[in-house]
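Data deposition worksheet. Section B asks for the primary sequence of the deposited chain exactly as it was used as input, without tags or linkers unless they were present during the calculation. Section C holds the resulting structure in token form. Section D is free text for depositor observations; keep each observation to a single sentence. Incomplete worksheets are returned to the depositor.
Section A, Depositor: J.P.
Section B:
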Amino acid sequence: MELTILYEDANVVAVAKPAGLITHSDGRTEEPTAEDWFIARYGAGTVDAPTGYVHRLDRDTSGVLVFAKTPEAYAFLRKAFHDREVKKTYLAFVYGVS
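Section C:
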């Protein structure tokens, strides 16, 4: 699996997550995840020095998914998402009549 990298620096990588891809394992499925992609490319963090996804997107949602490459970026971004300091914009395309 390959994800399109939209932005990358020494601390973070932002990718285009397609609809249908799970952000991380839920323990019930064995299909590939965006987290698997990150670990294969950058390695896994540890309990004492976590790295990886800092927020989730639902399986059926496409969009920008951000991963932290360093423990410092992970802590900073997790707090920013938790404290709702990150501005998110959602766009939906719909058609037809129900």
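Section D:
The mean pLDDT is 94.
The CA atoms of residues 22 and 29 lie 10 Å apart.
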